[in-house]
Write a structure and sequence with these properties.
The protein is α+β, with helices and mostly antiparallel strands. It has one domain: Cytochrome P450 (Cytochrome p450, Orthogonal Bundle), CATH 1.10.630. Helix content is about 55%, strand content about 10%. It contains 20 helices and 13 strands. Strands 1-2-3-9-6-4 form a 6-stranded mixed β-sheet, with helices on both faces. It has a 3-stranded antiparallel β-sheet with strand order 5-13-10. Strand 11 and strand 12 form a beta hairpin.
Length: about 450
C-alpha cells in the first residue's frame, strides 16, 4: 500500500516576514521555497487560507490535459479580473466558455489569420519608424505600443481614432496595476473599497466599454467589410443561428485587448534583449531572411522562419509572459501521493517549470538550438500558451506577429545591449524592466 504524503508547508510567519519583498517580486521567495520544500508546497497566507504552489510539470500536465474537468480557474480570473475586463473567453467557465470557444475559434484559424498578416506588418513597420539609431532607448514602450497597435489593426482596421486607442491602452494598463495591488495586498482590501480606488478604476473600465461600443456601432452602420477580427466576431453565429449580444461582444473584444497585447509586448522585449546578448543569433536570423525566396508572401515567411521561431520559443521558455497558472479542484483529487482537498487553490509556476534543472539541460542559458526540431518534443514541460482545452486561442496569432516583428527588425538593424542584466517585474504577466537597447542600421 502506497503511503499518502503530507504536502510540505511554508508557515504564515515566513510569508508575513517577506511580504514587502513579495510585493515587489515574488519569484525569489518562491524559488527559495521550491529548493527547501520540493516541487510542490503549500504557503499559508492567512490564519485559515493557503495556496499550493507547484513546479511539477507532470502535475500541471495532469491538471490541464488529463483531468481538466475537475479543475477550474480560480477566483482571481473568474471574479477579480472579470470586474475589469468582463466575462469572456479568458475568464468564463463551464458552458459559457465552451459556447464562446466554439464560436470564436474559427476566427483564429491559420487560414483566417492569413488575411490579417498585412495589417500586422503595417502596424509593426509604423512603430519601427520611431526607433532612433545610435541612441540607447528603453524598448519596452516601443514593443508595448507595437503589440497594442497590432491588436487594434487586426480587430478594427482603421475604425478606431488615435485618441480612442490611447485611452484604451491607458485604461487596460491601469486596471492591471490595480488588480496586482488587490492580489498582493489582500489585507488592504477594505481600504481599496472604502477609499474609492476600486470604484475609480471601475469607472475607467465603463469608459473603455463605451469606447468599444461606439466603434462597434460605427462599423455596423457603415456596412463595410474590412476582413478583420471585428467582422469575424460580428458575423459569428451560435448553433441556433443567433449572434453574440452586444455586452458579450464587448467582453470578448476587451479581453482580446488585455490579453492580446500585454503578453506579446513582454515576450518581444525579452527576446530582443536576449538577441542583443547573443548577436550570433541575430546573424542566423538574418541569413534565414536572405534565404527566403519571396519576402512579400507573409504566410510563407511566418511558416518557414524556423531559426526565428527557435529564438522566440527559447525566449518564452526563459521569460514566459504568463509565468503562473492557477486552478481550483472541483472534487478532491490525488497526484504523486499528495491528496488535494476539494477547492484547493493551486498555483503553478511556469517560470520555475521552464527552468527546472531536471527537465532542461543548462536551464538558465539561452540555447535556441534546443528547439531545432520544434517545441512538440517538450510539450510535457513547455507551457508558454498553456495546454489542453484551454490553451490560448491566440497562440498562432502571437507567433505570427512575433516572427514578423523579429524578422523586420533584424532585417534593418543590428541590436546592441545597453543594460547589465535582464530585469523583470512580475505583475499579472512577467514584464521587462530597464530594457535599454541601441540600434545601428545594418549594412546590406
Amino acid at each position: 500500500m502506497i503511503t499518502k504524503k503530507e504536502i510540505p508547508s511554508v508557515p504564515l510567519v515566513r510569508f508575513l516576514k517577506h511580504s514587502l519583498e513579495i510585493l515587489k517580486n515574488p519569484l525569489p521567495f518562491h524559488h527559495e521555497n521550491f529548493i527547501a520544500k520540493g516541487d510542490t508546497f503549500k504557503l499559508r497566507i492567512g490564519f485559515s487560507s493557503e495556496i499550493v504552489f507547484s513546479r511539477d510539470a507532470a502535475f500541471i500536465e495532469y491538471v490541464l490535459q488529463k483531468n481538466p474537468k475537475n479543475y477550474t480557474k480560480s477566483k482571481i480570473q473568474t471574479e477579480d479580473l472579470v470586474k475589469y475586463v468582463g466575462k469572456g473567453l479568458l475568464t468564463a467557465e463551464g458552458d459559457l466558455w465552451k459556447k464562446q470557444r466554439q464560436l470564436i475559434q474559427p476566427a483564429f484559424h491559420k487560414k483566417q489569420l492569413a488575411n490579417l498578416l498585412d495589417k500586422i506588418r503595417e502596424a509593426i513597420l509604423l512603430e519601427y519608424k520611431g526607433i532612433e539609431v545610435g541612441k540607447a532607448m528603453d524598448v519596452f514602450p516601443v514593443f508595448n505600443d507595437l503589440a497594442f497597435q497590432t491588436v487594434v489593426k487586426s480587430l478594427f482596421s482603421s475604425a478606431a481614432s488615435a485618441e480612442d486607442i490611447s485611452r484604451l491602452q491607458f485604461i487596460t494598463e491601469a486596471a492591471q496595476k490595480m488588480l496586482v495591488k488587490e492580489l498582493r495586498q489582500p489585507y488592504l482590501g477594505w481600504w481599496f473599497k472604502a477609499s474609492g480606488i476600486i470604484e475609480k478604476h471601475l469607472v475607467l473600465t465603463r469608459e473603455a466599454r463605451q469606447i468599444l461600443k461606439n466603434i462597434v456601432n460605427t462599423r455596423r452602420e457603415s456596412k463595410e467589410r474590412h476582413d478583420d477580427l471585428l467582422d469575424m466576431l460580428l458575423e459569428a453565429r451560435y448553433d441556433d443561428g443567433i449572434a453574440m449580444d452586444e455586452e458579450q461582444l464587448i467582453d470578448e473584444i476587451f479581453i482580446l485587448f488585455t490579453a492580446g497585447h500585454e503578453t506579446t509586448s513582454n515576450a518581444l522585449t525579452f527576446i530582443f534583449q536576449l538577441l542583443a546578448q547573443h548577436p550570433e543569433w541575430q546573424d542566423e536570423i538574418y541569413k534565414e531572411i536572405k534565404r527566403n525566396d519571396n519576402p512579400e508572401d507573409l504566410m510563407l515567411v511566418v511558416t518557414t522562419s524556423k531559426v526565428c521561431q527557435q529564438v522566440i520559443e527559447e525566449g518564452m521558455r526563459l521569460y514566459p509572459p504568463v509565468y503562473f497558472m492557477d486552478r481550483v479542484n472541483v472534487e478532491e483529487d490525488e497526484f504523486n501521493n499528495f491528496i488535494f482537498k476539494k477547492d484547493s487553490k493551486l498555483l503553478f509556476s511556469i517560470y520555475e517549470i521552464h527552468r527546472h534543472p531536471e527537465l532542461w539541460q543548462r536551464p538558465n542559458e539561452f540555447l535556441p538550438e534546443r528547439f531545432e526540431d520544434g517545441g512538440r518534443k517538450f510539450s510535457s514541460q513547455y507551457f508558454p500558451f498553456g495546454a489542453g482545452p484551454r490553451k490560448c486561442i491566440g497562440n498562432n496569432f502571437a507567433m505570427f506577429e512575433m516572427i514578423i516583428a523579429v524578422t523586420e527588425l533584424v532585417k534593418t538593424y543590428k541590436i546592441f545591449q545597453e543594460f547589465e542584466t535582464i530585469e523583470m517585474t512580475p505583475l499579472i504577466t512577467l514584464k521587462p524592466k530597464n530594457a535599454f537597447l541601441r540600434f545601428e542600421e545594418r549594412i546590406k
